[in-house]
Input
Amino acid sequence: MTLADITLAAFTLCNSLRVVAYVPQIARAAADRSGAEAISFGTWGLFLVSHASATAYAIVNSKDWTMAALFLGNAIGCGAIVLIAAWKRFQHRRQRVEEVLRQTRPGERSPIRPVSAAK
Output
């Protein structure tokens, strides 16, 4: 076994485990009820772009489909986290607006206009 074989095996093992490691983060984000506040769009977005560019590099420059598949798996995991967090934040903000609208007394003007009235 050469050094190149060892480093490829280590790379494949670590990145395969990393793809699986996204599952708990995805599950926690999906179960979150407070708008996924703890998830940083900047960090996860950078991870997503990094993995996407590594996928492209592996295909175009190295013609290494194994490496590309591993980075693509990582990009998909990051993308799932970003999409779930965005959806959770949208839902959370929408619920907060609805609560404010419900608390407004009859005849009193709401500080937040509904989307249909914003036109």
In short: Residues 65-103 form the longest helix (39 residues). The chain is about 75% helix and 0% strand. The CA atoms of residues 43 and 82 lie 10 Å apart. Residues 3-117 form one domain.
